Amino acid sequence: MAGTTVDDTVEGVPLVLRSYDEAFRRHGIEVPMKTLNDNRGRDKWAVIKEFGGEKASAVYRDFTEMCVANTVKLKEMEGAGDVFRNLKERGAYVAVESGFPALVTLGIIQHLRWQEDALIDYWTCSELVDEERPSPAMIRHCMRHLHVRSPSEVVKVDDTAVGVEEGINAKAHTVAVLTGTQSREKLQAAKPDAILPSVRELPAWLLEQKLL
Predict the structure, then answer these.
(1) Predicted model pTM
(2) Which residues, at least 6 apart from 190, have a Cβ–Cβ distance to it below 8 Å?
């Protein structure tokens, strides 16, 4: 979601990076911003547990509180709603997933009215499936819920390398987008099927590939 279909920048800084940084610093822990950025797409508790040590639980609590408080400042990535609507009109299911905690993920979805406006069919997050990317657990969870049997019918779109790896591990088609904070080089190293400027180009690419 964040960086792919959700513009999560708050005062010029991605919400997840700002919240990581401030939560760690509150407890006297400094983690380089580059390291935090390289870990985008992962389950947030897993990242905080890795760098927070014995203070991880307190850091995670503060991180979650900061994210929830700022969800009202987020907006969808330009064109995301139109893409969802286009895909659904063509008979595709739309599912979104996140490495954010469930409380934050649901808060973002409610704020953007995606379920209320029938723009998505399902959502999940790593906390709910109890596995983090690059495990394909979230994709498989969505597939089961939507009764999609073959991963060849699934297209995973993400702005992070670990999200691309998740799609590859699920044996799905993979598309990286450049609207996040990870470089083209980092995304390319994950070997997606395509790299697009943004999610807005997705429907045209799917039609070109005869996937829609």
Answers:
(1) 0.90
(2) 161, 162, 164, 165, 168, 174, 176
